[in-house]
């Protein structure tokens, strides 16, 4: 895991430097097209060993909204610019800072809001040994999660009863079969939009 940590911090620093022009452009677009709110969205998430940390993303929603923990494609709280940012995952670029400071990894379970970690029981709680990631095997499987939720009559229930348990299963498999090479494979598949 030392190699994973060294790679995370080095690659995150490199990414922030190389992508700084894109980060600046996105920040300007948010300021111009979504005035009256912050450029960066900050939210408390559950990290490694259950510790809370602040995750950073580009804001993609209106300032005032319901605050639901799940997002559904086409919902009104997502702005037109926000929809584009989310489509190309540009809203997640500030998470590179989370990786650089050690709160997150490039690969791991997506960080949940407080409450979902409390649902983990028995063997499933081993997931908390992992740092949350920008991408991971569950993220690849459910890269179209917002579209999938939009097709459901009750998106929150579908998330809680179908998606969440399946993500837990996938992430336990990732933990039990982790290798640095597997991480690199997941990153490459994420960049090129492929499924495992």
From TrEMBL:
InterPro entries: Bact_transf (IPR003362). It comes from Bacteroides oleiciplenus. Residues 4-192 form the Bacterial sugar transferase domain. The keyword Lyase does not apply. Belongs to the bacterial sugar transferase family. Keywords: Membrane, Transferase, Transmembrane, Transmembrane helix. This is Sugar transferase. It comes from the Bacteria. It holds the Pfam family Bac_transf. The keyword Transmembrane helix applies. GO terms for molecular function: phosphotransferase activity, for other substituted phosphate groups. The chain crosses the membrane at residues 12-34.
